[in-house]
Design goal:
single chain, about 575 residues, alpha/beta, Alpha-Beta Plaits, Rossmann fold, 4 domains, 7-stranded parallel β-sheet, about 25% helix, about 20% strand
Length: about 575
């Protein structure tokens, strides 16, 4: 009886197992049959029969964008026209989902399976369909993860924490920012679009209270998930923004604390695929259309999760990859484009990333606190022999905003060098808002420390914003005698400050500055003077709100003598 029961049981089990395997196989077939979605770049043949016209640019470009172009004599041309809406409708009729479009390259990015993408190739107005990545959020980290942020409490301070700029003093000074700040040029009126992978905690950190309260911080758009949320996904953008926009005097101030910032999410932090280059272009076009002056993109692309899509050095000619073609056009629209050069300088692939290879784009390399090339900073030149990187900025052990509260950290990468320069450029441009991007850049390149001998490690070198500012016009206020011919001054009564700049090839071991009136009475010592050898130095006297008109002199005391640097009247 036991044998009969057992035999019957085993027979039934075989039946159940067979049924289970059949059902499992059926589910597997269903899963395999489910189409795999990808993202595809679709090139159009033309913009024929478009409802848009270059004669009516206000329909697709803001007044601010048109004003920027007018100052530079840049006309509205065909690549400014949006893609033909009829072409977009025809794509959707094929059952694909629109990700975004590119007016500059006359293309669209769509979400579709391979069969649907194949059908798009048959449309008469489609020139090419190119696979740019799967429509999934890969959990793998990016190809080159940023270095871990180290809290300052565990590291030596990167500057004098008691100075006006606090822990940002050293890095800001390397770019010659303090004199501009002292003269009141802090980025006001300049719009900076920041493209990154996310800006976690920017809406809560006190570093950004100033720009937020004064309505100079805007969520632009999320070009990854196609919504307006940007305070998510990554802290990388937070660090990038902090070295420009932070404004906690005496603790941490960025290079352009009074600029306006537009935050754009273009980087998919879940993985690396060429579709992020498409996102880069969409973000840049958005920034152009609303009227941004500067775009900072601490992003670069060389290797992808699907290695068959990875770039080769021969493609780094500024004309081959999707992002570089779009970036070249971006640079022709009267904006300044700062893109990190890349962090592969000490790796087998030591070259730039895309789109830093694009002509007209500032590929920004990194230097350390002594202005020497940071070993991780990617090398040039481009595949067609052009000098890259273009300029360098502090990028090694840069002080950045931390995760919560007022925590600070040290971080390294050209991802920090690019915004350091972007903010400095914003402050410079705010001094001369009537200037064009090309005029600002001409002065900046001339001020760089390798302007006469650029190379493939530091490009034209580390620029000095104070020198660029003075070369564009600078200012002198008061009666400046011959022995102070290198002194530049500004008295701002509403701020109660007298700013004094000095060029010095040599500096005594001990030095002290003093402001006196015509009777020889001392009016006090400057607040945190920044006086550096072989640099343009700034000395700022504060608390002078009630200073009456009259004659004043600036004195410099050393251990052996007292010199009158300037005699001022107002």
């Amino acid at each position: 009886m036991w044998k009969t029961f057992l035999g019957t049981y085993l027979c039934d089990m075989k039946t159940y197992v067979s049924l289970f395997l059949f059902l499992l196989g059926s589910l597997g077939l269903c899963a395999q049959a489910k189409p795999i979605l990808g993202k595809w770049w679709v090139d159009f043949t033309d913009k024929n029969d478009s409802p848009f016209c270059t004669c009516r640019p206000a329909e697709f470009l803001s007044a601010r964008s048109l004003e920027r172009r007018a100052r530079a004599g840049i006309a509205t041309v065909e690549n400014d026209l949006p893609v033909n809406p009829a072409y977009v409708r025809a794509l959707k009729d094929q059952g694909v989902q629109l990700h975004h479009t590119s007016r500059w390259l006359n293309a669209a990015t769509v979400v579709a399976d391979s069969a649907a993408a194949q059908r798009l190739r048959q449309l008469p107005f489609v020139k090419k369909v190119e696979y740019v990545g799967r429509d999934i959020r890969i959990k793998n980290p990016p190809n080159r993860p940023p270095k871990k942020r180290v809290p300052l409490a565990e590291q030596p301070a990167a500057g004098d924490g008691s100075s006006l700029f606090g822990y940002a003093g050293l890095q800001n000074n390397l770019l010659g920012v303090p004199p501009l700040y002292a003269a009141g040029h802090r980025g006001a009126g300049i719009w900076v679009a920041v493209m990154d992978g996310g800006f976690v905690n920017v809406d809560t950190l006190p570093f950004f209270d100033s720009v937020a309260v004064h309505h100079r911080l805007f969520q632009g758009h999320d070009f990854v998930e196609r919504d307006g949320a940007v305070f998510e996904s990554a802290m990388h953008g937070t660090s990038v923004l902090s070295v420009m926009a932070a404004n906690l005097p005496g603790f941490f101030i960025g290079t352009a604390p009074e600029a306006t910032y537009l935050l754009l999410k273009t980087e998919d932090t879940g993985g690396e695929f060429p579709v992020e280059e498409c996102n880069w272009i969409a973000g840049a076009e958005w920034a152009d259309s609303v009227g941004a002056d500067i775009i900072n993109a601490s992003l670069g692309y060389t290797s992808f999760n699907d290695t068959t899509l990875s770039h080769h050095f021969a493609q780094l000619d500024g004309r081959t990859t999707i992002a570089s073609r779009g970036a070249t056009i971006a640079a022709s629209k009267g904006m300044i484009i700062c893109n990190s050069a890349g962090n592969s300088g000490d790796e087998p692939w030591r070259y730039l990333g895309v789109p830093a290879d694009a002509a007209g784009v500032l590929a920004v390399g990194a230097v350390d606190s002594e202005a020497k090339h940071a070993t991780f900073s990617s090398h040039g030149p481009t595949a067609d022999g052009r000098i890259k990187p273009d300029l360098v900025a502090p990028g090694d052990q840069v002080v950045v905003a931390g995760n919560t509260g007022t925590e600070l950290g040290l971080s390294s990468g050209t991802s920090l060098a690019a915004p350091m320069l972007s903010g400095a450029l914003a402050s410079l441009w705010s001094a001369y808002p009537e200037k064009t991007a090309s005029e600002i850049l001409e002065a900046v390149f001339s001020s760089a420390d390798q302007a006469d001998g650029p190379d493939s490690l530091r490009g034209y070198g580390l620029p000095n914003m104070a020198a660029a500012w003075l070369s564009l016009g600078g200012y002198r206020v008061g009666d400046v005698p011959n022995n102070a011919r290198n002194g530049f001054f500004s008295f701002q009564r509403e701020a109660g400050t007298l700013s004094f700049l000095l060029f010095a090839n040599d500096i005594p071991a001990t030095v002290r500055f003093e402001l006196r009136n015509a009777l020889g009475e001392s009016l006090g010592l400057p607040k945190d003077p920044m006086f550096h050898k072989n640099q343009i130095s700034s000395v700022v006297f504060q608390g002078l709100f009630d200073l009456p008109p009259g004659a004043y002199q600036v004195l410099m005391h050393t251990s052996t003598e007292t010199q009158r640097l300037a005699f001022l009247t107002w």
